[in-house]
């Protein structure tokens, strides 16, 4: 049995959560709570390219915002 996250011939979505974190998700599976579709339905390579292009900061959104507030406070 092929891992559904590694099947080159399957269709996928790119999901994103409220923290701005991305996930490759098999199109046949229900989108989990707290996640929304950012791209797809598309091939695995196209979805991975989308993630590579759009997820440029691996830090959670809440951490980025907290660090900005800290830096602004001096």
Tag the structure with descriptive keywords.
74 residues, alpha+beta, Rubredoxin-like, 3-stranded antiparallel β-sheet, 2 helices, elongated, Protein MbtH, MLP_fam
Number of helices: 2
Mean pLDDT over all positions: 93
Order of helices and strands: EEEHH
Query: Poorly predicted ranges (pLDDT <50, ≥5 residues)?
Result: none
CATH superfamily: Structural Genomics, Unknown Function 30-nov-00 1gh9 Mol_id
Question: N-to-C terminal Cα separation, in Å?
Answer: 55 Å
Q: By helix and strand content, what is the structural category?
A: alpha+beta
CATH topology: Rubredoxin-like
Main sheet specs: 3 strands, antiparallel
Main CATH class: Alpha Beta
Q: Using the alpha-carbon principal axes, give the shape.
A: elongated
> Which CATH architecture is right?
Alpha-Beta Complex
Describe this protein's structure.
This protein is α+β, with helices and mostly antiparallel strands and 74 residues long. The chain has a single domain, classed as Alpha-Beta Complex (Rubredoxin-like), CATH 3.90.820. It has two helices and three strands; from the N terminus they run βββαα. The chain has helices at 44-54, 61-73; strands at residues 11-17, 22-26, 35-43. A hairpin with a 4-residue loop joins strand 1 (11-17) and strand 2. The longest helix is centred in the C-terminal third of the chain and has 13 residues, at 61-73. It is elongated and about 55 Å long. The model has no long low-confidence stretch (mean pLDDT 93).
């Amino acid at each position: 049995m092929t891992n559904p996250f590694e099947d080159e011939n399957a269709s996928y979505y790119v999901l994103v959560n409220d923290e701005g974190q991305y996930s490759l998700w098999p199109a046949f599976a229900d989108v989990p709570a707290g996640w929304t579709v950012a791209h797809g339905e598309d091939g695995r390579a196209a979805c991975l390219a989308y993630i590579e292009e759009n997820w440029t900061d691996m830090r959670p959104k809440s951490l980025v915002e907290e660090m900005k507030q800290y830096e602004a406070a001096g």
